[in-house]
Amino acid sequence: DDKEVVAEIMARCFFPALVTTIPWEGFHFVGHEIRITEAMDCYGAVVWPSALVLCYFLETNVKQYNMVDKNVIEIGAGTGLISIVASLLGAHVTATDLPELLGNLQYNISRNTKMKCKHLPQVKELSWGIALDKNFPRSSNNFDYILAADVVYAHPFLEELLITFDHLCKEATIILWVMKFRLEKENKFVDRFKELFDLEEISSFPSLNIKLYKAMKKNR
Question: Which range is the signal sequence, renumbered to this chain (predicted)?
Fold first, then answer.
């Protein structure tokens, strides 16, 4: 039964007591109050439960998955909540997403990490499968962790997403990936993913239909 832990995760979220000119949603992680502005006109700029699950996991598993001074990249960063939490935990973070999401992403990251983090996070454009060698050359990809939440859903870029995971991964890179299962496509992607990566299910939240995975490259 996951109800207690799910209630604890969801309790990290709060809303402003008063109506504000720019609407925001609040979150309590790593001893900080994080304020996130969502863009309601696109999926990528909304905080989904998968993001809360990954933030909670990072905060409550700091001994096993220590972020301090680690090189971390988040793909499909959206509002930036996960990247903010990783930064507050001491990581060197690169938050990435599509060009149209970068303005809101940069805004959220700047307002929540300035003067609070050991390393100031970077925001970079990353369109899955596009110009990877140019923008993220393999020779300089030294990521200890790749973070991803809800990057698999009914979009036509699943093969490009797989290529991107593969491109950013070195032998020692750990992928922490949270996924909400909605359609058969998700199961098919997991099967494809397992062809390239060793996949381990760390946690499952049946009431949310969410699973948390750890993955590393095969044949490393």
Answer: none
Tens of pLDDT, residues 149-171: 999 876 778 899 999 999 999 99
- Alpha-carbon distance of 193 to 215, in angstroms, equals 9
Beta strands in 83-196 (DSSP E): 92-97, 122-125, 145-149, 174-180
CATH number of the domain enclosing 58: 3.40.50.150
Contact assessment for residue 177 and residue 198, using Cβ atoms and an 8 Å cutoff = no
Longest CA–CA span in the chain (Å) reads: 54
Domain count, the chain: 1
What is the strand order of the sheet 32-36 is part of? 13-14, 25-29, 32-36
Bridge partners, residue 14, by sequence: 26
- Residues 48 and 150 sit within 8 Å (Cβ to Cβ): yes
Domain range spanning residue 30? 2-217
Overall pTM surpassing 0.85 (yes/no): yes
Comparing C-alpha atoms, which of 213, 196, 195 is closest to residue 204? 213
What is the secondary structure of 50-84 as a DSSP string? Answer: HHHHHHHHHHHTTTTS--TT-EEEEES-TTSHHHH
* Token pair of 43 as six digits: 């999926």
